[in-house]
Design brief:
4 helices; mainly alpha; 80% helix; 88 residues; elongated; single chain
Length: 88
């Protein structure tokens, strides 16, 4: 199985983190809109007490996991379609 969505999603996660790191997102709006771990952490602790590096790593891993789930679902859909076609 190839993983094109996983690769693209991981690159999106990296881009979000790099954009935040460069300072072009001074109030962290883009980062907090697109980082699921930031949403969860903010519910339980003050976000300023959490390591920025940890948030970046969790953000990239979360995007990679979402891409992997999408790849698995796509693969299952294609496999069931092939199975239906061969049963005819």
């Amino acid at each position: 199985m190839r993983y094109p969505v996983t690769i693209v999603a991981t690159l999106i996660g990296l881009a979000i983190c790099l954009f935040n790191y460069t300072g072009y997102d001074p109030h962290n709006f883009v980062f907090f809109m697109l980082s699921i771990p930031a949403w969860v952490v903010d519910l339980f602790v003050d976000i300023h007490e959490v390591s920025v590096l940890l948030m970046y790593v969790l953000t990239v891993l979360t995007w990679a996991l979402l891409g992997f789930v999408a790849d698995v679902l796509i693969s299952r859909g294609r496999e069931s379609e092939r199975h239906r076609r061969s049963a005819r």
